[in-house]
Amino acid sequence: MTRLILPIVAGIVLGAIVHLVAVLMLPYLAEQDAYARLSAVGSPNMVAQIDDPSALGAVLPAADPAFISAVCLYDLGEGPLKVRVPTTEDYTSVSFYTRYGMPFYAINDRSAGRSIIELDLMNAKQRAALPEDEEVTAADRLIVESPSDEGIVIIRALVRERGARDEVRARMDAATCGPAS
C-alpha cells in the first residue's frame, strides 16, 4: 500500500503543475484574444468607439448595454502618448491593459476630479528619460507607466437614460489617444 502512495502523490503534483502552466500560458497562445478582436475596430494610437452589443454578439464579451465603450490600442514604440477623455454627467472610466489583457491601471471621473481625464502613458524607459521638474507636481501631471510597449485602453461611459445615448457618444468622440506634444 505504501508503495502505491508515492506514485499517486507524484502524479497529482505533476498534473497540478502541468495544469497551472497551461492556464498561465493560455493568454499568450490565444489567437483571437481581446487585442486581436479590437484590432478590427481601430488602428493603434487612435480612439475608436465600440458598437453596442447586439443579438449577433459583441466585440468584447459580457459588454454592458448601459455603457458606451471606446478603445485605443496603443503602441509606445514611437514615444509616449497623451490620453484625454472628457467626462460625462453620470460616470466615466478609463482602464489600461497590457497586450495580453492584464490590467495595470484604472481611473474614473470621481477620482480624477476634473471635467477631462488627462493622462500621459509611457513605458519605464520613457518615464526615466523625463526631466525632473520641481514645478510640476503629481497633481498637475498624471503619468501612467505601462509594463509593455503595446496594450489596450478601454474607455467606458454610463448612459443613464436612453435619450442621452447620442450626447454621451458625442462626448466619447472627443476622446483622444495620441502622441504627447
TrEMBL record:
<dbReference type="Pfam" id="PF06863">
    <property type="entry name" value="DUF1254"/>
</dbReference>
<keyword id="KW-0812">Transmembrane</keyword>
<dbReference type="InterPro" id="IPR014456">
    <property type="entry name" value="UCP010244_IM"/>
</dbReference>
<feature type="transmembrane region" description="Helical">
    <location>
        <begin position="6"/>
        <end position="29"/>
    </location>
</feature>
<keyword id="KW-0472">Membrane</keyword>
<protein>
    <submittedName>
        <fullName>DUF1254 domain-containing protein</fullName>
    </submittedName>
</protein>
<keyword id="KW-1133">Transmembrane helix</keyword>
<feature type="domain" description="DUF1254">
    <location>
        <begin position="67"/>
        <end position="176"/>
    </location>
</feature>
<dbReference type="InterPro" id="IPR010679">
    <property type="entry name" value="DUF1254"/>
</dbReference>
